[in-house]
Structure formats: structure tokens, C-alpha cells
Please model this.
Amino acid sequence: MECQEGSVVLDDRKLAVLRAIIEDYVSTQEPVGSKALVERHGLGVSPATVRNDMAALEEDGFIAQPHTSAGRVPTDKGYRLFVDRLSSVRPLSTPERRAIGTFLDGAVDVDDVVQRSVRLLAQMTRQVAIVQYPTLTRSTVRHVELLVMAPARLLAVLITSSGRVEQRVVEMPGPVSETLVADLRARLNTATVGRRLPEAVERLTELSATVPSDDRPAVAVVLSALVEAFSDDRSDERVLVGGTANLARFGEDFDRSIRPLLEALEEHVVLLRLLGEATDPSAVTVRIGSEVPLRELTSTSVVASGYGPDGEPLATLGIVGPTRMDYPGSIAAVRAVARYVGRALTDG
Amino acid sequence: MECQEGSVVLDDRKLAVLRAIIEDYVSTQEPVGSKALVERHGLGVSPATVRNDMAALEEDGFIAQPHTSAGRVPTDKGYRLFVDRLSSVRPLSTPERRAIGTFLDGAVDVDDVVQRSVRLLAQMTRQVAIVQYPTLTRSTVRHVELLVMAPARLLAVLITSSGRVEQRVVEMPGPVSETLVADLRARLNTATVGRRLPEAVERLTELSATVPSDDRPAVAVVLSALVEAFSDDRSDERVLVGGTANLARFGEDFDRSIRPLLEALEEHVVLLRLLGEATDPSAVTVRIGSEVPLRELTSTSVVASGYGPDGEPLATLGIVGPTRMDYPGSIAAVRAVARYVGRALTDG
DNA sequence: GACTGGCACTCGGCTCGACGGAGTGCCAGG
DNA sequence: CCTGGCACTCCGTCGAGCCGAGTGCCAGTC
Model:
């Protein structure tokens, strides 16, 4: 059997050699030579033969030599072929699955779910984990609360279906009566509960017309605060990062590979670009090296997946690591955690 | 004038030499020699004289030599003396103060305040910043909300004076009527609003006796969930870390100094121990090297302060960095941010 | 008595060259 | 088409040697 990849034809053994190179390189982090290869994997041929195959693989751009007379190292293209065609996602063991379940089931609220997910992902993959909070824009309104903090100061609280809570302090133009607050509270809830946030915003804007004209100024202030809370882009940018200690295993060239990554991890907006733009939001997306949409982060790969109840993605989570990572394991972990988190959000 | 420190007597010039050594070492990160010292600071004496002073300072344990015939490096004891007696806290410039104000005033809720504080601290000090969320146990109850999510499923929400929100999903033994929920909601609020959380918990436990006996089982479930939310220790452990990219400037010995710190930063419980146990919670506490209560983190210093409205500390914030840090600047930054955050929480 | 200039000494860090080993490419033979 | 052998390349390591920064001490000076 042969494999057609681009205009290149690779026979089975060459593919086996590529797979072996990647596996060895991932575990040792050192360029792998022909001799070590035939010893560790039962390839059944001599080193010289493997060398010929390696020459062909290099010709096609799947592997490269750091310098003449050194072993070979996989290229981004090599990893890509490996991920697409040579690896099967390692299924998690039952104990692993159970561990995920119990770990996430202990969560008491969204914050907790997100925090636990980050830890879990980081632990499972031994990489840096990133979890985006459920986005507001795709959630529905569960409840709107209006509290009197002072005669002319209200607290508006929005609770969403995904469990997130947004609050705003509203300074009123003058004292407001408890009855007005109660009335407004009722109106707000009937107008918005159960609706998606963008739709709820529309209802809010219509609401002003329905109240007695005396109350309009006060109501307008509350409404504008709520509209702001409902459509706050900033909140959609919330992400949590964990497992940075795993960067220690990255390698020694601190300034070249770790520092830019640490800096990127501080910039949450950048992180979202890193996670985002998956072609299929419900599947696991793998971006390898130069495919990563950040030029500071070459020699880095991202494995990400959308998550949410019932396969309807609310947000994204994933891991970041060196291109030289255990892809089958990482993909399995990301997929499993995404699935369980989605379930946990449905229940909680 | 002379300085009595322990059983040791140091004259003014020796103290000046110590101060100069620390300042030079902090800025260059290299052992400082006698010649460079007299050149850079106008000490008005010859290198030989300085050498004699240095020998005395070394004798008393304030400085040390990495190896024979190398320059001197301050010891923890030296930094301690410097912080206690030789440095005055650098006052922030008016633009700096204003920048802090505008940066924090833009915050819309507690989460936002905490996030902004971390960024601010990290930026100002160029170190790793740690901010603890306002603790629940020291806050008061602002509002308790009870929502019906499904016939036999409620959502209990607790909003505290510091703006934090805790939620719990409560599975009821059977369907509950809207009137019961409304009644219970009212009772909960009258019983707890305005009280500190530990006190509120007591009131909750008494509440069960006042409801009709038919409703007792349902009420008990809700109460126990709320009690749990009110007294959740886990929530008190919430902290936010930022500025880890600044670790890049730590030095080259990655494995010895950065890795353990990254690991500690992942463990929030550990972080709290790091911040906590200040002698005077309203002042800035400085822990230097061996004084830090974690033996993995020798060669690290912590500058921390309590914060909260009206000097009544709700929680702690601070920075972590190498013992070789700019103490006056760090102390000033931590103090200023703590003050402003306290104010921001009072308003918001 | 305190400070200073001079001097001998120490020791870490850098450079340079030699060496060994791992790995390759190629070629001739099976 | 595969294999064993061989010459070649080149990186990383090790040791020697040099340089410079810095020290401690001592004798001399104000």
C-alpha cells in the first residue's frame, strides 16, 4: 500500500520510519539517527536502508537535519502528516475517564469548573492549559436581579444559563422607590429570561417605551447599564491559564522559546486568537508550529476544542506546548475534557 | 552617629557602603567590587578604605563573597537592614498616582478590580504579582437570591458586600411552589442581609425552626446548601497571579530558581501561605529570602500588604521576586495599589 | 589612629586546540 | 532492492593557558 501526500508517494516503510522518528524524538528530544531507530523499533531492515528512506523523507520536507552529520528531526510538515494519517487517538483508560468525571463533578460553580478543567488538562498533558470562560453572547438569560444599595444607587445582577454572573453598580439620577424597583425587576425578567443575550438586548431597548413617562429617566439609566453588562465584549475575553510550571520541560533556550510564550500567556486577547478560529468548533483542532497564528510562537503547537452542552460550543479550551509533543495523548485529553466540561455545565 | 544593630556597631560610612553595594547589586546583578563602588557613588574615600569596611560588613554577616577574589553580594541579613533602616519608601510621582487611579476606576466588578490590580502591580514592579480575592468570611451579606430552575431544582445565589457572588444549584426532594420560594427568599434576606458571613450562618441554622413543619425538609436542603456557600473555605483560597513573564529576568539558573517558583504559583494554597500571616495586616510586610515561609523559595522575597475598605483588611496582595529586588520601589507600589484597591471596593 | 597607595596572590571565565563519537552519504556486492 | 563497509563531517567536551577583576595585607602618610 502506498500513501499519496501532495505530489509525493511514500511507501509503508517510509511512513513507519517517519512515525518512529517522531515517537523517538518526542520522547528523547534529541535528533534521532538511523542506527538507534532500527534498534529501538523492530523495523527489520538495516540502518543503511533506513538512511535511504530518511534521505527521501528529507527530500520531501517531512524531516530535517539540524546540521550535517546529525540525526533527523521532524518538521512541521512531518508532524502534520503524523497527526493526520499516522496516529490514532489513544483512547483513555477507564480509570482515566473515571478520574476526569469525579474531578469535575466536585465543582460547585462555573468558576470552579473552569479552574478544575485547567488543572486537569495541565496535569493530563503536562503542558500549559488554557480554558476560555463560557461566552456571554452565546448564553441565555436565567435571571436579572435589581438591588437597592443606597437611595440613589442600585446593583444590577445578570445570571446566565451557563452560570456566569455579571454585576453593575448603577448610580441613579435621584432616589428610587422600592415599588419602582420591584416593577422594573419584574419587567426586566419577563422581557429577557430564557432569551439569548443579543436578543435580550433588543428587548431591553424596547422596554423603555412601556414604563410610565415619569420613570423614564431612571429606567433609562438602569437599562443602559444592563445593556452594557449584557454585551460586554471584555467579559468574553476571560480565560484561565494553568500548568505554566510545565514550561520548565520545554528546553533550555529560555529566551527564545519560553519568554515569548510567557508573555503571550499574559495577554488574554492573544490567547483567544490562539484558541479561536477553529474550522470545526465541535472537533479537536491541531495547529502545528508555523500554522499557529502568532509569529512569536513558532516552534509551538496548539491543540484546542470547543466545548459546551450538547455539542453546541459555548467557548474553547486547549493546550499549548512545543511542536515536539505527544499529539495522540494531547488530542485524547483535550477531547475528553471538553466533553466532560460540556456535560458538567449542562448539569450545574 | 552610629547604628546599633544587634551586638554590632556600624558607623555611618559602613552603612553607606552597604547601601551602595545593595543599590549596585540590584541594578547590575553582579558582585560589586570596591573600585567600582567608589567610582559610581561619591564616597570620598579610596578603594582600600572601602575594602576595610567591606571586610567588617562581611564579618557581621551583611554581605558575602561568592568566591574568594570576587566582589561582594548582600546577604538576607544585609537586605533586612537595608529595608528596615537604610531605605525610605520612594514616594510615587503624581502621574503614577493618577495612572493607578484611572486604571482601577475603569473596573466594572470585583473580578475586574482583581484582574486589573494584578496587571498593575506586575507592570509597576516588573515582578510576579499576586492578589487574593476579598475573603468571604470577612464580608457581609448584601443579598440572597433564590431562583427556580426546574420544578425540583433551585439556584441559590449569595452576593456579598465586596461584590463577590457565590452560587449553588440545589436539588430539592420534590417540586416546590413559587410561594414557598418567595417566602423563603424573604426570610433568608431579613435574617442575613447586612451581617457578616459567620454570623449569617448562625442565623440560617436558627431559621429552620420558624417555618411551617411541612416545609422543613425542603427548607433544610436549601439552608444546608447556603451554609456551605457561606462558609466555603475553598473560595477563600482564590487568588490571581500575573506577570509571570517577568520571571524571565530572574537569572539563568532556571531549574534552581524559576521552576520551583512556577510550581508554587500553581498551588494557590501555597500562595496564600506566602502572602499570609502578616504581623500587621494594614501595613506592608517584607519577607526576605530565608524569612519566606517556604523552603523551596529561598532566594526569593515577598512584599505584601492587606487591603480593604477603610483600612479594614479583607484580603492580601503583593509581589514575589528575587531577593535582589528594588525594595523601595516595590514597597511603594504595593502600598499604593493596596490603598487604591481598598477604595475601589468601597465605591463599587 | 585612620586613611591611602602599592603589591602579591587568588580564582573564575574565556579562548583555543585536540579528541572522540555519532551520524551521514556513497559505493560495491549480494 | 537491500546491505555491509568506508571515508568524511561536524558537534560537544575536555584541558591548558591567559587575562582581568578583585582581594588582603603592609608600610607609609596626614
